[in-house]
Amino acid sequence: MLVTVVLGLMVQTRPRKKKRKSRMSGEKWGFVMALFRFYGRILPPAPIVKLTLKNIPRIHWEDKELGLVLDVTMSFVDSEVIISCESNRYSSAEDFSEVYKRVFDMARAAIDCCAYLEGSGLGIVLERVIPPTGVQQNILVQRADLAKLAAGSEATQDKGSRFDELYEVTVSNPSILLALNDLIASIAISHTAGINCGRVVETIREVMTPEGEDRKKGWVYMRQKLNIDTAYLKFITDVSTAPRHGKRVGAISRHDYDETINRAWTVMTRFFEYKKRGDGPLPIDEFPVLSHAHFARRQPAPEDIEE
User: Fold this and answer.
1) CB neighbour class for 197 (10 Å; exposed up to 12, middle 13-18, buried from 19)
2) pLDDT at position 250
3) Strand 59-63 to strand 68-77: parallel, antiparallel, or no bridges (unpaired)?
4) pLDDT over 60 at 22, yes or no
5) pLDDT category, 295, cuts 50, 70, 90?
């Protein structure tokens, strides 16, 4: 599943051919394996936190659906992160995205274990990679298409004034502050997308619901003010259901992942426009109804969104 865009990186190489034997599984693999080296930091960085851990178990990981096989070793030295990853896929940007996602998961799991044992709020960032080409690259997780969705009604507006508008709305409402963070985390940590995007639209609905009204009427009010049909929102909340109830693995397909984030980003943009215009309904000529009809997967007409 392609979940990140890493700018400026297209891996092309001719690695040596050899048979690999997994140290963990004991099975022989006849794949061509290529080496990636990742470098990063534990946050907060040294000297605030100086974590050294050199005996982290080697991980053999495979995904039969993707046809991806990885052997990963890592170490932490004074909060510097050093990871070696051998992969049987390495020839495209999509391959790199898959490798990066899995390596980041493993590194984050190690940091989370340390943070749990120490009772500390630790994080991790992977900043650089040396792919099989041997040319070091910086890592940036970004989706340029989402920036276009965030432009709002005035695409030519300078980023400074746009930032000021968004910041005023965000810091003045703790719920929106948290929802915006959920939205950003959905691309930074892809596995959170289903839950996070569901929380984003639920939060916007809660913030927009008139005082004293129930949640069902809140959905109606939100749809009317932002020009969004029921099914468009229900797709997002449906995708969030399984991971929200504990099914965290394999709960979302690549297509649904992309569609969920695109929709949640668009809903957030419309909410910011709604606040910018004094909480009035968005004009239909500028903001046509967001419809589920274009989506290929056919679904029965839903009732109002409700738990």
Assistant:
1) buried
2) 65
3) antiparallel
4) no
5) low
Which residues, other chains included, contact 172 with Cβ-Cβ below 8 Å and sequence gap of 6+?
Answer: none
Dihedral angle, C-alpha 200, 201, 202, 204, nearest 10 °: 90
C-alpha torsion sign, points 93, 251, 189, 255: positive
The pLDDT tens digits of the residues spanning 102-127 come to: 999 999 999 999 999 999 999 999 99
Q: Tokens in use for 263?
A: 């929709």
Q: Which two tokens stand for residue 39?
A: 């470098």
Q: How far apart are CA 236 and CA 233, in angstroms?
A: 5
Task: Look at residues 51, 15, 45, 46 and name the one whose alpha carbon lies nearest to residue 33.
Answer: 15
Spatial distance between the Cα atoms of 305 and 300, rounded to a whole number of angstroms: 13
Q: Which helix (H) or strand (E) holds 146?
A: helix 144-149
Chain mean position to CA 237: 16
Residues 154 and 83: beta-carbon distance below 8 Å:
no
Question: End-to-end alpha-carbon separation of the chain, Å?
Answer: 29
Measured CA to CA in angstroms, residue 93 lies from 68, 69, 90, 164 at distances of 14, 16, 8, 35
Look up the pTM and report it.
0.79
Peptide bond into 44 cis (omega under 30): yes
Residue 147 and residue 127: Cα distance in Å, rounded?
A: 22
Strand boundaries in the chain, DSSP class E: 20-21, 28-29, 34-43, 59-63, 68-77, 80-87, 123-130, 137-138
- Domain ranges for the chain, please list them: 20-138, 144-276
Q: What is the DSSP letter of 286?
A: T
